[in-house]
Amino acid sequence: MRVSIYIIFLVLVHLLYSCDFINRTQPKHPNILLLYMDDLRPELNTYGASQIVSPNIDKLAKNGMQFNNAYCNVPVCGASRASMLTGMLPTKSRFLNYNTFVEKETPEAVTLPQLFKQNGYTTISNGKIYHHLDDRETDWDEVWRPYAFDRNDQGLAPTDYWQSLWKDYQNEDNIIEYKNTDTGPAYEKAMVNDSVYIDGLMTEKVIRDIKKLKKSSKPFFLTAGFIAPHLPFNAPKKYWDLYDRNGIKQPDNNYVPKNAPAISISTWGEMRAYSNIPKKGQVSDSLAINLIHGYYATVSYVDALIGKILNELREEGLDKNTIVVLVSDHGYNLQEHTQWAKFTNYNTSTQVPLIISSPFHQKGKSTNALVELVDIYPTLAELCNLEFPEHQIDGESMIPILNNEKHSGKKHVLIKKGNAFTLKTPRFSYTEYLNPKDNTLITSMLYDHKTDAQENINVVNEPDYKDDVIRLKKILHTTCQNNIIGE
Question: Most CB contacts within 10 A, which of 11, 177, 313, 350?
Answer without folding.
Answer: 350
